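re the bet — no i am not wrong, look at it urself. input seq straight from the record:
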Amino acid sequence: QVRFVESGGGLVQPGGALRLSCAASGNTFWGYAMGWYRQAPGQQRELVATIPVVGTARYDTSVQGRFIVSINSIKSTLYLQMNSLKPEDTAVYYCNSDPAGFPWGQGTQVTVSS
């Protein structure tokens, strides 16, 4: 059973940056495309970044040019570098495969506010 533990969230001012981490444990899942998702209050969970097994990462238009997804297969860790953060980026961030096929972790809260 794959389990995810997300970390790195926090409170940041608009224009700031954060780096999220997603540590995976359990069965190896690195044959899957991996994604970062987020869920804002009252909103559905949405996929914002995907890193495929082969090929280039893809991003939602709302984060294109500001977020960078990367993976360290040796450490079984997925990262999301978030730059030029905006208040509308405020959400709980999760990782999972793309499409999501494993139990969700607890997520990490990102709050962008002055």
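see?? The beta strands are 3-7, 10-12, 18-25, 34-39, 46-51, 58-59, 67-72, 77-82, 91-97, 108-112. told u. also The CA atoms of residues 21 and 79 lie 5 Å apart. so pay up
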